[in-house]
């Protein structure tokens, strides 16, 4: 016989079963009320500090941001300040000051566009007198650092002319096409954009500071009324031609569609490469110094000389004059009298600049014999025999000589930058191409391009 296990509590004989649940409910309500009253009392006695998203109190979050900023840890300091600004109740003056601090840290790290945004945010919250000049100066520095020189001009105009309505600089209309207008600022941006595109082709040829210098020169050249009017006419012409082409639905023609598709493909491919290079190439002064030290042999200045010459029609005439020079006739006087090169003859035969060992010699070209004679002759000495040139024979005098020497880092810095950047560009492009070939399962059948044995014409058919 199986006996069932009874897990219920036995009833107390002194308490009726129907009254027990009601009593328990009342007891629970009384306990809950007491607990809530105790919590309320604690809240009255000791307020709970407001916390930020990081879980810190407002005051502790502010202290954290200040500590990080003081230690020069700009990136975490910026995050800490933004966490602090996320809490409610901060007045406009404090917000203006903090956004200025954040902008200053961005600027220190050369994040110029982010810094500009913070400075403008600061002024949007409150234009504080004690920060006005500082924000103006730093905004100009950021615009220049970001290469936005057209915007810099209008920024200066807005801040210098206190009577000008804010943001009105550059809003003068310079052209109209129907209902649309072109303002001074739009023209400036278009000019700057065209210059930026031209300089993009030189990105690997010079350091950013050199490109910025060139950009300033281009903008200065384009700042005159005649050049600006020429650019404006070009913009207007392109716009009206574009509108007419759209009206004629030229974009729907198969040949034009194919051309647009090809151009889009090339443009996007080039844009991808430029994006990869911009993201991955960061050349520091230390990188340049390291590369220079590792490639010093590439930056040797070869032995070189400054020379004068007297070109003559034939060898006998040259040998006759050479004998006179050896006898004491003055080289410069003879050059002015008999040289076939009237330009250098008037200067006593002097060839401007230096002739490096192994380089072509003006009027003679590449001549191992002439080079050997020049660099075997002492300064102020006359080369002991005439040298055949491109036309006739030359008598040569060595005015100065310099031995081979190592070029200093500062002297060749642009060349070092160019070489290092080109090396990095090659590495990045090769890695990107290899990655994409693998991702898109590219197979190139090289064998299809090998000429058949005995057939030297690759284009011939078997």
What's the CATH first level of the domain at 58-172? Answer: Mainly Alpha
CATH topology-level name of the domain at 58-172: Serine Threonine Protein Phosphatase 5, Tetratricopeptide repeat
What's the rounded overall pLDDT mean? 82
Helical content, roughly? 55-70%
N→C terminal distance: 102 Å
Q: Helices and strands: which structural class?
A: alpha+beta
Total beta-strand segments? 9
Task: Just name the CATH architecture of the domain at 58-172.
Answer: Alpha Horseshoe
The amount of beta strand, in percent, is 5-15%
The tally of helices reads 17
Low-pLDDT ranges: 1-19, 43-52, 458-462
User: What would you call the shape?
Assistant: elongated
Question: Features of this protein?
Answer:
Chitinase A, domain 3; elongated; disordered N terminus; 17 helices; alpha+beta; Serine Threonine Protein Phosphatase 5, Tetratricopeptide repeat; two-stranded antiparallel sheet
Please give a structural write-up.
The strands form three sheets. Strands 4, 5, 6, 7 and 8 form a five-stranded antiparallel sheet that branches. A two-stranded antiparallel sheet has the order 1-2. Helix 3 runs antiparallel to helix 4 (92-108), helix 6 (129-145) packs antiparallel against helix 7 (149-160) and helix 11 packs across helix 17. It has helices at 20-45, 58-70, 74-85, 92-108, 112-125, 129-145, 149-160, 184-200, 208-221, 225-247, 254-280, 285-294, 315-326, 331-338, 342-345, 368-374, 409-439, and strands at residues 173-177, 180-183, 300-301, 304-312, 355-356, 381-382, 387-388, 393-402, 405-406. It starts with 19 loop residues before the first helix and ends in a 23-residue tail after the last helix. It is an alpha+beta fold and 462 residues long. Helices cover 57% and strands 8% of the residues. Strand 1 and strand 2 form a beta hairpin.
């Amino acid at each position: 016989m199986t006996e069932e296990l009874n897990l219920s509590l036995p009833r107390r004989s002194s308490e009726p079963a129907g009254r027990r649940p009601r009593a328990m409910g009342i007891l629970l309500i009384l306990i809950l009320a007491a607990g809530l009253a105790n919590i309320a009392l604690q809240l009255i006695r000791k307020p709970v500090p407001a916390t930020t998203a990081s879980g810190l109190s407002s005051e502790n979050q502010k202290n954290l941001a200040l500590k990080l900023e003081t230690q020069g840890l700009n990136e975490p300091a910026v995050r800490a300040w933004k966490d602090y600004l996320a809490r409610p109740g901060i007045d406009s003056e404090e917000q203006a000051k903090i956004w200025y601090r954040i902008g200053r840290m961005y600027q220190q790290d050369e994040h110029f566009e982010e810094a500009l945004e913070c400075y403008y945010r600061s002024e949007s919250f409150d234009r504080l007198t004690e920060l006005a000049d500082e924000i103006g100066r730093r905004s100009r520095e950021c615009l220049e650092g970001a290469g936005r020189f057209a915007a810099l001009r209008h920024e200066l105009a807005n801040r210098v002319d206190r009577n000008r309505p804010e943001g009105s600089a550059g809003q003068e209309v310079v052209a109209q096409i129907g209902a649309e207008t072109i303002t001074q600022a739009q023209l400036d941006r278009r000019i700057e954009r065209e210059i930026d595109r031209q300089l993009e082709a030189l990105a690997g040829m010079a350091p950013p500071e050199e490109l910025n210098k060139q950009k300033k020169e281009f903008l200065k050249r384009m700042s005159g009324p005649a050049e600006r009017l020429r650019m404006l006419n070009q913009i207007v012409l392109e716009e009206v031609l574009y509108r007419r082409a759209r009206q004629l639905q030229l974009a729907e023609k198969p040949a034009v569609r194919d051309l647009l598709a090809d151009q889009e493909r090339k443009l996007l491919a080039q844009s991808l490469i430029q994006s990869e290079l911009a993201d991955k190439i960061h050349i520091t002064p230390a990188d340049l110094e390291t590369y220079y030290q590792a490639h010093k042999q590439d930056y040797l200045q070869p032995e070189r000389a400054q020379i004068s010459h007297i070109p003559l029609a034939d060898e006998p005439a040259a040998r006759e004059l050479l004998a006179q020079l050896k006898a004491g006739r003055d080289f410069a006087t003879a050059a002015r009298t008999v040289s076939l090169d009237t330009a250098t003859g008037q200067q006593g035969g002097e060839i401007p600049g230096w002739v490096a060992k192994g380089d072509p010699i003006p009027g003679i070209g590449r001549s191992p014999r002439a080079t050997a004679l020049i660099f075997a002759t002492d300064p102020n000495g006359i080369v002991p025999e005439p040298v055949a040139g491109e036309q006739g024979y030359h008598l040569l005098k060595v005015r100065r000589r310099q031995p081979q020497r190592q070029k200093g880092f500062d002297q060749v810095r642009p060349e070092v930058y160019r070489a290092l950047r080109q090396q990095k560009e090659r590495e990045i492009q090769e890695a990107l191409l290899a990655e994409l070939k693998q991702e898109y399962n590219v197979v190139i059948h090289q064998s299809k391009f090998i000429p058949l044995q005995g057939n030297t014409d690759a284009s011939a058919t078997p």
